[in-house]
Amino acid sequence: MSDHNDLNRRGFIGAALGTAAGLGAAGLAATAQAAAPAGQPGNGHTDLSQPPAAGGPPPPGAPGSGGQFSPIRAEVTVRDCEVEGKLPKDLDGGFFATGPDPMYPRLPNNIMFDGEGHVRQFRIKNGRVDYMTRYAKGERYLAQDKAGRSLYPMYRNPLMDDPSVRGKSRATGNTHVINHKGLILALKEDTPPIALDLNTMETVDPIYTFGGQLPSTQPFTAHPKTDSRTGNLLAFGYEAEGFGSDVVSFFEIDKSTSKKLWETKIKVPYVGMIHDYGITDKYVMVFCVPLTIDHEQMKRGGIHWSWDRTQKTYFGVFRRGGDGKDLRWFEGPTRSGTHTMGVFEDGNKLYFDTEITAGNPFPFMPNRDGAPPDFKGAESYLHRISVDLSGKGKVYNIEKLFPMSMPLPRQDDRYNTVPYRYGYGACPDPSVDRRVAGACYARLDLQTKSYKLWNAGTKVSLAEPVFAPKNAKSREGEGYLMGIAYHLDQNLRSDLVILDAEHVEDGPIATVRLPVQASPQVHGLWVRGDLYPKG
Ligand SMILES: [Fe+2]
Question: Distance from the CA of 126 to the center of ligand 1, in angstroms?
Answer without folding.
Answer: 32
